[in-house]
């Protein structure tokens, strides 16, 4: 089959699939002009002519006046359609808030980055996924090499969007994209890709000053101050929403105890919701993990803490000794 034939066949497949998709799912987007507040826009489909068509969406967006409250639940789609939507949103002068209601994956994940500073929220239990761009090629070896180069260039471009939002380097995001990385609601906030989880206080505003070194970038997201887990628990108990506070600062949830109380949560390592992980708190939590009973998912708690440790760089060596001490305490209780 020649390239022209391949393109012709694809054109027919696309037309037929698009008609089937629209009739079966009735997906796409919806713009709700509310008289008593911001215009609500729901992007609840894939980013492509099969779902959310960039040309049609941007055309309608230009007619929207005033603040916008955009909600996302999309598996992503075409890179350049996604970039067109991202840029159309970024170029608006009116306030723009974005909420990930379910999933913002692939192209939808960088569309989310268009939100104003402090206005990108993750709904509880939502998720965000990033990965390298991918595509298909029909042709010879040179065509495929060229596609690989084009995909690398496109992926670097996407990584620069995450870097601009988070203050972390492009190379950091490319590494995570190559692995296809998933973030739950709180992990997206910890990574700097979102500002808050709905129901939580916003993160403190990021510094607008210049960042000149990789070391500064790494340390900017780490709390190096002394750790006092009891003080964190006391602050959570005194907060207006203890469950949300503890969920945001702890790695482990227990199967016992009231979620509004300290007894239901374990392994705190942030001093408050939205704060960066505390290095000594992470080390302490890893040390106490083996002796912590009734955890709903010990493996997930360990993975969460170890991910923080890797991201912080030069992980503390103290948690091994703490872990041995915690194990010894547990054995004494058994005896």
Give an account of the 3D structure.
The protein starts with a helix and ends with a helix. Helix 3 links the parallel strand 3 and strand 4. The N terminus and C terminus are likely disordered. The strands form two sheets. Strands 1, 2, 3, 4, 5, 6, 7 and 8 form an eight-stranded mixed sheet that branches. It has 335 residues and is α/β, with parallel strands linked by helices. Helix 9 runs antiparallel to helix 10, helix 11 runs antiparallel to helix 12 and helix 11 packs parallel to helix 13. It is globular and about 55 Å long. The chain has two domains: 195 residues, 2-enoyl-CoA Hydratase, Chain A, domain 1 (Alpha-Beta Complex), CATH 3.90.226.10; 106 residues, no CATH class. The longest helix is centred in the middle third of the chain and has 26 residues.
Outline of the structure:
With about 325 residues, the protein is of the alpha/beta class. The protein is built from 13 helices and 10 strands. Helices cover about 45% and strands about 15% of the residues.
């Amino acid at each position: 089959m020649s390239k022209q034939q391949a393109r012709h066949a694809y054109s027919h497949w696309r037309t037929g699939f698009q008609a089937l998709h629209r009739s079966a799912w009735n997906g796409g987007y919806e713009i709700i002009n509310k008289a008593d507040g911001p215009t609500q826009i729901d992007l609840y489909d894939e980013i492509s002519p099969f779902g959310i068509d960039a040309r049609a969406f941007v055309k309608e967006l230009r007619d929207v006046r005033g603040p916008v409250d955009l909600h996302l639940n999309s598996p992503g789609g075409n890179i350049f359609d996604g970039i067109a939507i991202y840029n159309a949103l970024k170029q608006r002068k009116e306030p723009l808030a974005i909420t990930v209601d379910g999933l913002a994956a692939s192209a939808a994940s960088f569309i989310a980055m268009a939100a104003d500073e402090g206005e990108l929220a993750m709904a509880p239990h939502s998720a965000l996924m990033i990965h390298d761009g991918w595509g298909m090629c029909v042709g010879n070896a040179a065509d495929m090499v060229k596609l690989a180069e084009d995909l690398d260039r496109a992926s670097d471009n996407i990584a620069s969007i995450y870097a601009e939002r988070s203050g972390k380097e492009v190379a950091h995001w490319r590494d995570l994209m190559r692995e296809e990385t998933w973030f739950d609601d709180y992990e997206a906030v910890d990574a700097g890709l979102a500002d808050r989880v709905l129901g939580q206080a916003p993160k403190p505003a990021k510094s607008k000053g210049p960042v000149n070194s990789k070391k500064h970038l790494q340390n900017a997201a780490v709390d190096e101050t002394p750790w006092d887990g009891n003080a964190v628990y006391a602050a959570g108990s005194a907060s207006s929403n203890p469950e949300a506070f503890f969920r945001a600062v702890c790695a482990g949830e227990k199967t016992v105890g009231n979620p509004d109380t300290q007894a239901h949560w374990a392994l705190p390592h942030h001093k408050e919701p939205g704060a960066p992980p505390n290095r000594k708190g992470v080390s302490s939590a890893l040390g106490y993990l083996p002796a912590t009973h009734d955890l709903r998912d010990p493996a997930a708690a360990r993975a969460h803490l170890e991910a923080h440790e890797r991201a912080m760089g030069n992980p503390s060596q103290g948690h091994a000794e703490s872990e041995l001490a915690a194990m010894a305490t547990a054995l004494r209780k058994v005896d």
